[in-house]
Specification:
The chain is of the alpha+beta class. It has a single domain, classed as Beta-grasp domain (Ubiquitin-like (UB roll)), CATH 3.10.20.30. A hairpin with a 5-residue loop joins strand 1 and strand 2. The longest helix has 7 residues. It starts with a strand and ends in a 6-residue tail after the last strand. Bound molecules: FE2/S2 (inorganic) cluster.
Length: 106
């Protein structure tokens, strides 16, 4: 089982189980985690699935590709640990991942 914890902007934490090879965005939507809109459905074309990756997980999650980097320019309050959650592929290596959702999307 792969667990992912989502913390919202107010500090409320929700831990849900994720399917291998799904994405951090899909896992949030499937489990009713608020704070991720995902308007484009995961096509890396909307920046409304923005999350902050917990510092301890940055190396394992890795850096965004150029297309995601460009799309992040449209996200609200972008920080060095910002990622688009539809571009983070879930694997067993990410069991225990913690991400925080921003105050608002887009
Ligand atoms: Fe649109 Fe991630 S869902 S960029």
């Amino acid at each position: 089982m792969i667990n992912i914890t989502y913390i919202d902007a107010k500090g409320t934490s929700r831990t849900v189980s994720a399917e291998d090879r799904s994405t951090v965005m899909e896992t949030a939507l499937k489990n009713g985690v608020p704070g991720i809109d995902a308007e484009c459905g995961g096509a890396c074309a909307c920046a409304t699935c923005h999350v902050y990756v917990d510092e301890a997980w940055l190396d394992k999650v890795g850096k965004p590709e150029q297309m995601e980097e460009d799309m992040l320019d449209f996200a609200f309050d972008v920080r060095p640990n910002s990622r688009l959650s539809c571009q983070i592929r879930v694997t067993s290596a990410l069991d225990g991942l913690v991400v925080t959702t921003p105050e608002k999307q887009g």
